[in-house]
Structure formats: structure tokens, C-alpha cells
Amino acid sequence: MILRHCGQIVPAFRLATHSSRFSVAVRSIGVLREFAVLLGRSALDVLFPKVCMLCGKAVSGQDSDLCACCYGNIEKITGPVCTRCGTVFASPYGGDHLCGDCIARRPHYDCARSAGVYVGELRRAIQQFKFKRRSMLSAPLADFVACCCEPIGPQRGYAALVPVPLHLDRLRHRGYNQSLLLALHLGRQWRVPVERDYLRRINWSVSQISLRRSQRRRAVRGAFTCHSSRYVGKRLLLIDDVFTSGATVDECARTLKRYGAAAVDVLTVARTLRGPSECQVLNA
Ligand SMILES: [Zn+2]
Ligand SMILES: [Zn+2]
For residue 74, which ligand has an atom nearest its CA? Predict the structure, then answer.
């Protein structure tokens, strides 16, 4: 049998031999390339061993930034929770349902969820992330949120992720907005655009530290604005690090809806449990 190959007429058996040699060569190059990458990674691991971002111990997994011990010590929220505000109920029995606060006063956001409880390793990680200039922690914290925060996710069809704006004084002092860093990581993973300054804080004089829940709500009233009505009829996702009283994200959601958003969900890395500890958290 005769076949035409590269403009030349060659016997079929020669072409088959030629093609199989070619595919073997390609496969060999692929194997060599993978080997070289692995070798490179191994050399890098030997020269610069990957360590846990929290405790400094060696990390065994290829992609993890936290060791198994630190990750395992994070208290994840598994429910039952309030279907709207995400408050964790004291009893571990029963299903999700509305809490008394949401029945008494419906928040402006539609659904708020947090991945973990603001205690222990997670609290330490967030405090280092915010107050010790360890912006690199945004990656493992965003990964933690992405894998532990049902039902919030790209399947809900968000038009954009909106980080909660940081107080200008804190932004100047810290040099970065921790909510924006988290939003950028999540946006990349979920392929959802991030609005860096669609939502703006216009009232800079109010500090919420040591205020009670109702006082916090009044303190942030009118503190935000949007620079356009770009998201009329769209669903947005607010991103923040810690959910405390919920006053700030509620006012953000009210503002976004005033500018036309049809729905606003809230996603935070952690939340405080209701009680005295709530007052100790800086809503920065
Ligand atoms: Zn660790
Ligand atoms: Zn609730």
C-alpha cells in the first residue's frame, strides 16, 4: 500500500514506522519534561523547604500553605446555622432555620456565611494577616473559605465580588485592604470579576470599637456609597474577613441595593460566636 506523506509517496509500513518513532519521541520528551519539572521542584524543596505560614513547621503537601496540624485545629462551621445571617446555633442538633434576630429585623443582605469560628488558629491567622503585615496569608485563608463555605459559591451567579472598603486611616497604616486580597484570590478561583472600588466609604470618622450591636448599626448608617448603578438587577457578593455584629456588611448591602443590586450575599473567613467575645473583635 502506498500513501502520500509530506508531498512524497512512501510505503504505508514506512509511514507507520516513521509515525510511531515520532510519537515515541514526543512521549519521551514529555516524560523528560515532567521529570525535569519534578527534579526542579524537588531541588527547590530541598533548597527552600516549604513551611507552614502559621507555625513554621515543614509542610508535606505540594500546594498547602498551612500544615495539617494548624489546618486541623481550625474550627470549621458545620451548622446548624441561621439560613439568612449564618449565626451558629448553640445546639448541634436540627437543621438550619431563621434566627430570632432575622425574624425580628430582616437584614439587607440575603445570605451571609462564614467558613470558620474566630477562635484558635483561625483567629491567629487572621490577626497576623491584618495586624502583622502578613498579606501572604490571604492565599490559604481564601482557599479555606472557597472549600468550606457552602452554599456560597460561583454557582450562585455573582456579577462581581465586592470587598468591604477599609477605613482610610487603617488602609494608610496597613498598606493593603485584607478584604480586597481575599476577593482577588476568590475571583481568580471562581472566574468572577472583583470590583476594587465600586463601593466606597465616605464616612471616615466613625470607629465601631466598643460599640454595642444597635449602636454599630447607627454608627455606619450612610457610611458607604457606590460610584454608579452598574449592577442593576444583578447579584453581588460582599467579601470581608470577620463577621462580628454584621452591622458593616448590612450597611454595605443596603447601599449596593440602593444602587440597584437585586441580591447581595456576604462571605467572610470567620465569625465570632454570639457572646462577650464579640466585643473584643476589631471590625477593621
Ligand atoms: Zn502549622
Ligand atoms: Zn439570622
Answer: 1
pTM summary value:
0.78
> pLDDT by residue for the chain (284 residues), tens digit each?
444 444 444 454 444 445 556 556 656 666 666 666 556 555 666 666 788 888 888 887 655 788 888 888 899 998 899 999 999 998 888 899 999 999 999 999 999 999 999 999 999 999 999 988 899 999 999 999 998 887 899 999 999 999 999 888 888 888 999 999 999 999 999 999 999 989 999 876 555 666 677 777 788 888 999 988 999 999 999 999 999 999 999 999 999 999 999 999 999 999 998 654 333 333 33
Q: Same domain for 8 and 80?
A: no
Residue 232 CA to its chain's centroid (Å): 24
- Residue 254 phi/psi, 5-degree rounding, is -60, -40
Asked whether residue 111 falls in the same domain as residue 159, the answer is: yes
Question: 80 CA distance to ligand 2 centroid (A)?
Answer: 11
Residue 123: CB atoms within 10 Å: 19
The closest ligand to the CA of 87 turns out to be: 2
